[in-house]
Amino acid sequence: MSTAVDIDEKIEQVITTPDRYKVILLNDDHTPMDFVIEILTTIFKHTPEVARDLTMKVHQEGSAVCGVYSFELAEQKSIEATTLSRNAGFPLQIRIEKD
Known about the structure:
Largest sheet: 3 strands, antiparallel
Number of helices: 3
Order of helices and strands: EHHEHE
Structural class: alpha+beta
CATH class: Alpha Beta
Strand content: 15-25%
Helix content: 40-55%
Distance between the termini: 60 Å
CATH architecture: 2-Layer Sandwich
Number of domains: 1
Number of strands: 3
């Protein structure tokens, strides 16, 4: 007795890339620019020059994207920056938006 089985099905693999999220710094009148530059260099790993440019963009335009990450990383970096800001007594606001 033969128990051979023919399989004609093909399994199609669908690979999707995870969504990306922008971390956006918002301007306020109380957080010093030097502190924002420090956040951008320590948490978001920008060079001092890029951090200064982003800080000026936040100051002049009201907001700036400081990085685009997976949701978990964007959330982690925004929480770290907010916590550091609050511990220093500053009201820095950060928003996460889907890219």
